[in-house]
Amino acid sequence: MHCSYYSWLIVFSYFFCSLLEQPLEAIDFTKETGGHHTPLVFDRKKVSQVKNLIPIVVIGSGPAGLSAALYGARAAVRTIVFEGRNPGGQLTETSYVENLPGAPKLLGSELIERMRKQAESFGAVCVSDTIVEVDFSQWPFLLRTESGEEIHALTVIIATGAKPRFLSDSLDTPGEKTYWGQGGVSTCAVCDAPFYKDQKVVVVGGGDSAVEEATYLTSYADSVTMLVRGPALRAAPAMQDRLKGSQKITMLYNTTVEEIVGNGTSVTGVKIVNTRENTHTALSTDGVFLAIGHHPNSDIFKRWIATDKEGYIVAGPHDQQTSIPGIFTAGDVSDKVYKQAGVASGNGIKAALDAYAFLQAQGYSEAFVEEIESNYYNPFL
């Protein structure tokens, strides 16, 4: 049986509302946030008294954030995206995207531009500003921007992404940033492996993700050399079993990268050091895949909402809600496994639907909008 988009919203909203035992005018949620129990009162009367109000705030402008913005705006809810210091996120730093259904071989920056324009066509507004501070102890939630604005949000979707860890983060590695993105240095085998068909590549790292990258690359590359800093892999035994029998993978232990070299356009090799024997070697390669981890951009939220030991925001098992009702998350800031544009986009859609259902539960309606829209934030003033 087929149900329309709005039918699903109505069903979901009804279900959400049915769980509430108190009147919508003053609902007291108590949730564990960052290890502390913080009571929140969702009081509709207070909403009409605050300025710079936004029903849906999206923090971040990558695939997750822009997909959330599209669905929020398409539901006729005032939705504003704060793009952050790196508009478009990691996708703008990659070359071609070929694994997104319906969008064959687009530059990452072109894909982001299309997503932004589509969201804006339904009324979403993208603001070139960065949220630098939040206060989730009150509702509407208080957000402060880098330009000094104070924003009050009825819902927040955190889609700030994660940044890959680079060799240069701990030790200067010439050539790494020069060839990052389109020059042969990558952090995503699933994204870029097809560009290295029948070529030589190296994978830097010794954990589960490094093994995952190396085994995936064997489907395309002619040879894969794993450069492991320690005397053995740190990957789980089950992951290491994947390497057994592979004729394409070579292991170099006690090995670090001191330089990534190239011809000015693309990578041609790496200079490596055997730290045990203190020997320096040049290794020819067409691509370098870094698999040394990511850092989720969650620092300003950790005080308020639950994160795991690595800093990834914890979402519900079947939705995108965080440990505070009304705060949702999507994309790589809460996804330590997949890190794919398509997955991030899907999570952004889920987050927007969750946010819409939350607003409905607070009595959001045309009459409510008429009551509060004079207090809406206007980024163009």
What does this structure look like?
The chain is an alpha/beta fold and 381 residues long. The protein folds into two domains: 5-163 and 294-375, FAD/NAD(P)-binding domain (3-Layer(bba) Sandwich); 166-290, FAD/NAD(P)-binding domain. It is built from nine helices and 21 strands. The protein has helices at residues 5-18, 44-47, 63-74, 108-121, 189-192, 208-217, 237-240, 341-361, 366-372, and strands at 26-33, 36-43, 53-59, 79-82, 96-97, 106-107, 125-127, 131-135, 141-145, 150-158, 162-164, 185-186, 200-204, 223-227, 249-252, 255-262, 267-274, 279-284, 287-290, 294-296, 327-329. Strands 3, 4, 7, 8, 9, 10 and 21 form a seven-stranded mixed sheet that branches. Strands 12-19-13-14-15 form a five-stranded parallel sheet, with helices on one face. A three-stranded antiparallel sheet has the order 16-17-18, with no helix packed on it. Strand 14, helix 7 and strand 15 form a beta-alpha-beta unit. Helix 1 packs across helix 8 (341-361). The N and C termini lie far apart (47 Å).
